Amino acid sequence: MIIAVHQGPFDRLPEAMAAAAERGAELIVTAEMGTTGYNIGAKAVAELAEPADGPRAAELGALAAKHKIAVVYGYPERDGDAVYNSAQLLSAQGERLANYRKTHLFGDLDRDQFSPGDEPVVQADFNGLRAGLLICYDVEFPELVRAHALAGTELLLVPTALMRPYERVADLLIPVRAHESQLYIVYANRCDTEGELTYCGRSTVASPDEVVAKAGPGEELLFAELNPAVLAQARAETPYLADRRPSLYRSLTEGPRA
Questions:
Q1: Which of 12, 84, 11 shows the shortest CA–CA distance to 45?
Q2: Catalytic residue at 32?
Q3: Whole-number pLDDT of residue 255
Q4: Which of 26, 77, 102, 191 is catalytic?
Q5: Which one of 18, 134, 214, 240 is at 20 to 30 Å from 146 when CA atoms are compared?
Q6: Model's pTM, two decimal places?
Q7: What is the pLDDT at residue 250?
Q8: 136 counts as catalytic
């Protein structure tokens, strides 16, 4: 399976989708809050928020169907009075396969704009792989990535808005998460500036064994080829998931014993 990451302005996504499809990509992944911008102020975000089946979903679904390529994009989702930092996976036919609301909010910027989601593992079957969604800060929690692995996720799709000076997340943490939970991670970042935030690019696709593809700091259409057999081999050679002893880790959720 070939996948693409659009590390560039959201308004150039249509041409990126066309180029990715021409290269044989089955999926293109974009950044966190790509449809509106992330650091634009809580009032602006609230005004631009829309339901999961809103106009932007219809627009992107039509583009996906036109180019016959699935897409993951980040957007502000309105549900009643609540606004969520969400990511949606649309199929190559333009149909919604999964919608995820960011569960771990990053600092005041997130908390001032969004309500936290409460569903940690959101998945969909995608072209022979079990795909899951997280957003940015979520992937920095090993418990959440491991929950995906235990639920059968093989391809973890992570729109992000990683800013300087946190390049180490893309460079160091993402390959480690893919290795320890033995899945593919597609980490799709931005490379522009919003207010005081400068996004560092460095989008990363990692397997359990290696960094399959990595972008630089600037605009880029990144491609990676994924092989499901790599996951089976990694899990057989180093059976982290099978060798777990959950009874020893109860303090992670239950707290220390008296």
A1: 84
A2: yes
A3: 59
A4: 102
A5: 214
A6: 0.95
A7: 81
A8: yes
